[in-house]
């Protein structure tokens, strides 16, 4: 199994955005050494506790600090932008880091309604154009507009030897069908969807007409040396998500101490139990077993892990323990031949 990382650049309570971004860069360097396949960074806007509004800028730094791991967005929220602008940015990255760049694409707003207006004006109108935006971006990436098209002579320079690889991210059958229709690789957000993920991924495969469908499934994981330690680390993340859902998130991921001091009401306890159904928490052996079960259920050879903890060192350790449980470093050598 291939394992990859989705980093939302979480800010921990009491820390700064700069510290969060520095932790992201350090984690990417570690992931490169541990044998992870991809390192993607998310895009969010004006959301407390998340420090990455511009994945391409962060990826430029990460690319320079790593050697072989694929880097990408998880995701560029395409309705916020003109496809030409995105093509330029990711072509530049692919020129600097050949054969290593992915463009994960999504259509979520990534922030409040006011933020969407500030970024793109009428966001909902842009969302309706998503299929056309994907087509336009693809033409810019490969410079293959029809000769009579307005943009036939426009180049999203620099044009790399190997174009960035686009992926469509989603959590619904609608996104799965769109990815299949566009013959794009698909990333399903298991960690953030309440729907039947297996059915959604099957819908993607069933509607894929030509070539080979390719799927990555993203899951929330927290790993520690003991089950008890993993559950304690996870508690602060669960509190943070409860606070986010209630619009009460303050300074970022709360500490374990803050989580212990918080008194959960019955509604919040139900919410937490539901969240834990989509999250893997445990020892390296427990995490490996549950990831392999998910892999078999989704019939995919690659899982992408998102881990948000208050303590950045606990996050690093979680990814390290998982890599060791799967012998990723040795496996990666096999992939590289």
TrEMBL record:
GO cellular component: cytosol
InterPro entries in the cross-refs: Bact_Lucif_Oxidored, CmoO-like, Luciferase-like_dom, Luciferase-like_sf
All copies of domain Luciferase-like, residue ranges: 1-297
GO molecular function, one term: oxidoreductase activity, acting on paired donors, with incorporation or reduction of molecular oxygen
Taxonomy, superkingdom: Bacteria
Family affiliation: To bacterial alkanal monooxygenase alpha and beta chains.
Annotated NCBIfam families: oxido_grp_1
Designated name of the protein: LLM class flavin-dependent oxidoreductase
Organism: Oceanobacillus chungangensis
């Amino acid at each position: 199994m291939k394992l990859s990382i989705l980093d939302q650049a979480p800010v921990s309570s009491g820390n700064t955005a700069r510290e969060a971004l520095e932790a992201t860069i350090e984690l990417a360097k570690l992931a490169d050494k541990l044998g992870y396949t991809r390192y993607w960074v998310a895009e969010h806007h004006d959301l407390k506790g998340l420090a990455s509004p511009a994945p391409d800028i962060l990826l430029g730094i990460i690319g320079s600090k790593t050697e072989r791991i694929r880097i990408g967005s998880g995701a560029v929220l395409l309705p916020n932008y003109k496809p030409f602008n995105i093509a330029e940015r990711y072509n530049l990255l692919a020129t600097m880091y050949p054969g290593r760049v992915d463009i994960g694409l999504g259509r979520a707003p990534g922030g409040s309604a006011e933020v969407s207006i500030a970024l793109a004006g009428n966001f909902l109108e842009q969302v309706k154009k998503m299929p056309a935006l994907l087509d336009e971006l693809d033409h810019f990436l490969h410079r293959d507009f029809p000769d009579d098209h307005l943009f036939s002579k426009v180049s999203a320079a620099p044009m790399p030897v190997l174009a960035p690889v686009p992926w469509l991210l989603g959590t619904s059958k609608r996104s799965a069908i769109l990815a299949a229709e566009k013959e794009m690789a698909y990333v399903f957000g298991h960690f953030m969807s309440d729907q039947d993920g297996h059915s959604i991924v099957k819908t993607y495969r069933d509607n894929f007409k030509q070539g080979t469908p390719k799927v990555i499934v993203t899951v929330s994981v927290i790993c520690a040396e003991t089950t008890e330690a993993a559950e304690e680390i996870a508690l602060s993340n669960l509190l943070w998500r409860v606070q986010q859902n209630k619009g009460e998130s303050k300074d970022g991921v709360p500490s374990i101490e803050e989580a212990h001091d918080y008194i959960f009401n019955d509604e919040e306890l139900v919410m937490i139990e539901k969240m834990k159904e989509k999250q893997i928490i445990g020892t390296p052996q427990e995490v490996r077993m549950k990831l392999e079960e998910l892999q078999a259920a989704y019939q995919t050879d690659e899982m992408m892990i998102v881990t948000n903890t208050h303590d950045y060192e606990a996050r690093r350790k979680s990814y390290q323990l998982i890599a060791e449980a799967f012998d990723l470093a040795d496996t990666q050598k096999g992939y590289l031949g």
